[in-house]
Amino acid sequence: MLKQPELKGSTFTLSVLHLVDDNFAAAADVLAEKVTQAPGFFEGAPVVADVQRLSQCPDISALKRCLQATGMILIGLTGVTHNHTRQLALDSGLAVLKSSKQSRIADPIQTPAKVVTAPVRSGQQIYAKNADLVILNHVSAGAEVIADGSIHIYGVLRGRAIAGACGQKQARIYCQNLQSELLSVAGSYWLNDKIPPEHVERPAMVSLNQESLQIDPLTL
User: Fold this and answer.
1) pLDDT tens readout for residues 94-105
2) For the domain with range 114-217, which CATH number is right: 2.160.20.70, 3.40.50.300, 3.40.50.970, 3.30.365.10?
3) Which residues neighbour 77 within 8 Å (Cβ) at sequence distance 6 or greater?
4) In what residue span(s) does the Septum formation inhibitor MinC N-terminal domain sit (predicted)?
């Protein structure tokens, strides 16, 4: 019988660097002094950066470089309060650790809806970051419209529509004529062959219902 990998809990000691501002070079100098005092202990040691007191999203690449110069390795962030910072950390290959005192990551500030008046043509991609997306025209096959909030299409939807791109499960897709190649809300998606025939070429509202998409008629 082949042996299978096992996932087990364990306990490790991690050093936490509590950042007070964006002067990462100054923080690296403090760490470098620690390494000089005990090189055998700190060299190659994993470090978690606490970013709770920073006024804006940290430059993760710059932070990584500063720590690497000391011989220590940045493995994650803690004190993360916004989804944007969380996503940047994950995209950079870092873990996001939640302290026992931290309640939850706050939602990013919602910005005004992004409004597009021209047709969205094949090959185009439109993204509304932290906002709803309003299309006052058609979305062609091969086009893609994405929003962190809801999507409103006052025309034919033939391309791909992705609402709740950052995980907002309350997001919805509204369109006047549903012929979409792909529909997605908060990561759950349907291809066009799964859209019930009674909703095709009709006004529709797409929402998330218990991790599955739901389509309802849109009353005009």
Assistant:
1) 999 876 555 555
2) 2.160.20.70
3) 48, 49, 50, 51, 58, 60, 85, 89, 94, 95, 96, 97
4) 6-74
